[in-house]
Amino acid sequence: MPLTLSRAAAAGDSTDVLAAANLPALWICAAGVFAVIFVQSVIYLKAARKAAPAAGITSAELKISFRSGAVAAIGPSLAVVMVAIALLAVFGTPAVLSRIGLIGSAAYDAGAASIAANSAGAQLGGPTYTQNIFAIAFFAMSVGGAMWMLATLILTPLLKRGGTQLARVNPVAMSIVPGAALLGAFMALGVAEVPKSMVHVLALATSAAVMGLCVFLGRSPKRAWLREWGLGFAIVAALAVAFIAHTAGTAA
Known about the structure:
single chain; mainly alpha; 11 helices
């Protein structure tokens, strides 16, 4: 039996995903990402201090702006933490830290990983979620994120020109097209969960209702923070409803 398990692990067919997700190499990579972001932050702070006198900003005003930015980041950061905790069991700590906790988007990375796993005939967190599937999903998240950053660097100047021209011709289209593209992508991911079971339907409906409520209430300036926390609230609420529904179904 141990020999069989070791062979499965060596072939990447083991379902002990966290053993692969917490490898020292991945921790080193996550630490490298932290180091790069720390250096970038120091560079930006120094650049801001250097440019402040030319902009007529005093040292005291600069400190206030730094402090205000730090306080304003608490809400969105806690929302990311809530999402990250929910995904730790699926992706492991290094992947969550390097992708979702720092440079990634929780919605994008989870969607990319789900598409990659489904393409390989598996399901994230399911019985077919092996170390090989984790490697595929993590690779999809990482490559997608890297291309996202490169595309931003290369295409931003070009898209800015096109956006300026489109805004002159039809300003409304410029605001509708990006939102429609994102809505279509995430709706496709959501609809794919509907045929699986009623628990999936309840989870999807709950998350959509909670997210919609947060967006609606967040329209008020006093409750704008709800738009940042909406994804975290939607995930927690969907998980709670799915757990209750699954438990009730099992008990029945």
